[in-house]
Each structure stands twice: as structure tokens, then as C-alpha cells.
Amino acid sequence: MLGLTVLAADVLGRAAGWGALGPGPRTRPHVALTFDDGPSARTLDLMAVLARHSAPATFFVTAPHAAAHPDLMQALAGAGHQLEAHGIWHRPALLLPPWMEWAQLRWHPRAGQPGLLFRPPYGGHSPATRLLACLARRQIALWDVEGRDWLDLSAAELARHTLEQVHPGSVILLHDGPEVTPELLGLILHGLHERGLTPVLLRDLPMQRIPLRAGLGRLQASYGR
């Protein structure tokens, strides 16, 4: 019984994403670029690509990397990018005891400000994730398009796959760290421009709650590959 509860929490929370924040309105020509895991040695390269295209982005940073790179945190904020939380430990929620997950959810680089977002590492959920997020006044922020920049594929191939999945309102997941990501980002931005889609910050998208029907579609996409 416990195993089924744990499995259901991860499948419904991560794969379906029911009740979490996901894509924005499909009626507006906007998309959101998001980067997990930074800041890193790759952050300035990503910022340079974004600046060339006059594109804002949202960075989900981790506590250790934020503490190690205060200069990059300041640079990101100064350039107008949105800073949100990716936690303290980059582990799936199922591998964290409740007290660690509570600390994971409470940390945020913009502590004390309203509308704070949290993106769980790997999107993973434990049975306690949603309750703890509510108590910590955090909103779970997921995505609908993966750049898959952790794969050993060319930037062109990754960009083609990413752009095939993009729709108005999409939230694109990329990572601050892989060597391929700056080139991939440039190709994605070029493709978005050709489609008449404009990158915006997550707070300007804005993200919407993932309803039942969209959750079913996410489940099919997750397990129907």
C-alpha cells in the first residue's frame, strides 16, 4: 500500500503534474525559456546568447551554486532575468526524508517576496511534496517541453526536436551547465522568431494550473514514447 502511494504521488505529481503550474495561455504568442541547476561556468555564455536576441529567461538555481557564485546571481538579476528555486539538494524528492524536503522547499533566492516558485529536481514528487509546498507558500512550476540537453546529441538535432514540441504558451526546460546548451539556445531562439513566438519571463507568461485533461496528455507523452 505504501509503495502504491509513493508511486502515485510521483506519477500524478511529476508526470501528470495535476495542480502544478504548467504552460501559459495557448492564445498568446509567448513562450518561456527556463534553465535549471545553475548558476555555473556556462551562465555568462547563456546570458550572452539571450542578450543577442533580447530575450529574458527564468533561472531555477540551487542553493550551493547560488552561494558559490554571488556575482552571477547579481548579473542575472541585473540583466532582468527571473530567479527562482531549484532546491538545496539535487535529488529526487523520494530520496529525501520529510525534514530535508521541508528545507528544500523553504529555501528560495528571493526569500520574502511573493509568488515564489519551486521546481523540484527532476520534477520528482514524494507523497508530502504538495502539502509541504503549500505550507511553505511555494508554487510547483513544471514545464511542457524538454530541450534534452543532457543527451549526447548535436545542438541542431536537439533544437529540431524541441521546436517540434513548442506551442504558444510553452515552458521550455533547459539546463545551465551542459556544453551544448548555448548553441542549442541560439538555434531555439532563431526558430521561435521564425514562428512569431516571443520569449517572456514566467511571471509574464503567466503559468497556469495543469488541469485534468492536460494532465492526461502529459501522462500519455511521458509513458507513450
UniProtKB/TrEMBL annotation:
Record-annotated NodB homology domain positions: 29-200
SUPFAM superfamilies linked to this entry: Glycoside hydrolase/deacetylase
Classification via PROSITE patterns: NODB
Superkingdom of origin organism: Bacteria
Pfam family, one: Polysacc_deac_1
Protein's UniProt name: Polysaccharide deacetylase family protein
Organism: Deinococcus oregonensis
